[in-house]
């Protein structure tokens, strides 16, 4: 797995619960770090529900092989954001990956060993919900590569926060450091009357971060511009730089860069 | 697995994507069928992220054993809604189930064979996101028990609809019939100005149902009453019978009962 040795930072996006915005965070953090001049790799290990290709509008693209291994699919012409996902290996977007654990583990190990990332500053690993095969395999494979750690994503509801508590136990059991927690879908500003409603409750993420003594990276409001941008593969940071979600994302990315003491 | 032979209907709640409202649907459909006089069992096979106990406010409860097997935990005094979940077997709500596939499969098989449901009309099986171990094991174990089939849940976004297309492929591959599709989080009515916004896009579920020739069961709007009821374990059908989500749920339950030609 020596391709990983040239990667400066590895960040794993985790959440016990599905649909809280892990892939959204992976994409937005990647775009934010890219806008700050960093070179990025994104590895999508959600084998049964790969969303990253669609979110970058890369669905029809193929993976190519070179002498060094598999080449990621690049989002931009300058090849500063590269993506690897099982989505690129499926014949059709409707194909279901009906695999039990051992087959999934083998695929993830191959992704971690064979993809030729080429000196990326940040490798962001997007995971499926849960604390099972995919997660155990990623954590075991990253040992020895000194990953920065995990960013946990939650929504404010008690049900989601409960799942993140379990994910935190998982991080402690598997020995991966926690970079911090992001609360997604925190409040919705009505575009008609500009009043904010906490559709999915409020503050659960921040309270959890305080209780468990982990860093709170920030809250991202519900923003239909963000949903739309991810459905169409548009870079919202460029298309809609003043939207509430973008301001929140930029804030989180700044915190991440501030954590990086190894780079100038 | 002869405890399953006394179950009249088996419905599996599926969605490729997480966080679209599978557990919410499982709970609301159970409550709706219960209000219509049916006896209900709910089996939660989301081993890494069990939400059902919290949604019924049963978190501190324990499973008891009788001569016939494990007794479900009952929601009501009349024992007309029984729940089985790994949540009842964990010491603390923070405990993470860090299990690979084979251990998960063994647990699910035990749930399917050892729980003494006692003549329930409907057994509703809530699943984790994806198309992997848990789903394959459930489908294999249900063969021979003539399950009614799967209810697929999606949100309107393209990303979620894509995952449901894959789940549909899974149903066809494993031979489970599709009862129909529910679109959750379809539009949000602002409580301040009463204007409706399609936060997560609109109509993706209905369009998918038409394209793939499966039954569209209905749309459920975003409703903070519903989120709150599930965080606190309150029965929204009784607490808030006129809320928009409850009207939509009642509509879906009526369709399900209409499908049932075996019962008077």
What does this structure look like?
- Chains A, B: One of its GO terms (cellular component) is axoneme.
- Chains A, B: It comes from Plakobranchus ocellatus.
- Chains A, B: GO terms for molecular function: 4 iron, 4 sulfur cluster binding; ATP binding; ATP-dependent FeS chaperone activity; metal ion binding.
- Chains A, B: Its cofactor is [4Fe-4S] cluster.
- Two copies of one chain form a homodimer.
- With 264 residues, chain A is of the alpha/beta class.
- Chain A is 37% helix and 21% strand.
- The first copy, chain A, contains nine helices and eleven strands.
- Chain A has helices spanning 22-35, 52-55, 101-114, 133-142, 158-174, 204-212, 224-232, 236-239, 244-259; strands at residues 9-14, 40-44, 64-66, 69-71, 73-74, 81-85, 122-126, 149-154, 178-189, 196-197, 216-222.
- In chain A, strands 1, 2, 5, 6, 7, 8, 9, 10 and 11 form a nine-stranded mixed beta sheet that branches.
- In chain A, helix 5 links the parallel strand 8 (149-154) and strand 9 (178-189).
- The relative contact order of chain A is 0.19.
- Chains A and B meet through helix 3, helix 4, helix 5 and helix 7 of A and helix 3, helix 4, helix 5 and helix 7 of B.
Largest sheet of chain A: 9 strands, mixed
The SSE order of chain A reads EHEHEEEEHEHEHEEHEHHH
State the low-pLDDT regions of chain A, or none: none
Largest interface: A-B, 65 and 65 residues
Helix content of chain A: 25-40%
**Global shape of chain A:** globular
Computed structural class of chain A: alpha/beta
**How large is the radius of gyration of chain A?**
18 Å
Instruction: Round the mean pLDDT of chain A to the nearest integer and report it.
Output: 92
Number of helices of chain A: 9
Portion of residues in beta strands of chain A equals 15-25%
Alpha carbon gap, first and last residue of chain A: 27 Å
Question: Using DSSP, what is the number of strands of chain A?
Answer: 11
The quaternary organization reads as homodimer
Protein name (chains A, B): Cytosolic Fe-S cluster assembly factor NUBP2 homolog
GO biological process, one term (chains A, B): iron-sulfur cluster assembly
Cofactor (chains A, B): [4Fe-4S] cluster
Keywords (chains A, B): 4Fe-4S, ATP-binding, Cytoplasm, Iron, Iron-sulfur, Metal-binding, Nucleotide-binding
